[in-house]
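Supplementary Data S3. Sequence and structure tokens for construct A.
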Amino acid sequence: MRFEIQFSGNEHIRSSHQKTIEITKDSHLTSQGNCIVGINATSSCADLPQELKEKLKVPGAKVTFSIRVGKHEFTIEGKGNPDLILTHSEDIVIRKSDFICPRTLAVKCDKASDLLPREMVSLLQDPKTKGTFTITVD
């Protein structure tokens, strides 16, 4: 199953966090949100289709994320978990750790926002930039 979320850039995007990547429906961002790669997202954890949520809760489900900005693409692989809550109304966070809260979409991910190519980060620092966050669950 595949699901796409659109988002926008922001001048405060730093993409320097070593353990997480986040997109948010919020329309503003401070420089402290160093894991955030996009704002004005079209969906949060709470907005995901029920079928996708069920697939994410399959033990050990393989989840692939793709972040596309212009001609650039960044891919992350992670795992689903039966304990995922998936109810946060604003945010989606993917994590390298096993930590689960209502914002967590996947755990044990192989990359975090600090590895996003700097060319992508530069593009995302322009509020006019649009990106796509794609979730694929096998």
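Construct B, processed identically:
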Amino acid sequence: MDRNEQKTLLKAQQGELDAVLMYNALADTVKSRSDAEAFRRLAAEEGKHAAVFRGLTDQALKPKKTLAILLPLLYRVMGRKRLYPLIAKFEYGAVDTYAPVAAKYPAVESVKGDEKRHGDTVMSLLKE
């Protein structure tokens, strides 16, 4: 593993860990029960993704609480119609971030596909 790959994988691992806290915090904040359930499912999947990256980096990282504090505040200020597209954009961006390492590490290909689905899931919440 070269330095750039390691940097990408560690950043991905950190992002997945942070997303677990973020989605759980959103689930505790949102008004819609179906949104809360979706966010809890996404949190669980992000935890599995973090484990995939942990297996590749062989490093234990700690989640940062920044997004878990910020996103519930943004939900209260912006509302779901403006916040959810931003969350989806973040998920779709992970697809591009993971693409360079997915070819070399097949487990990342599966995670990459999940991230697109996560973006789609968040956007679908706005249709309910």
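The chain has one domain: 3-125. Helices lie at 3-29, 33-57, 66-78, 80-102, 106-125.
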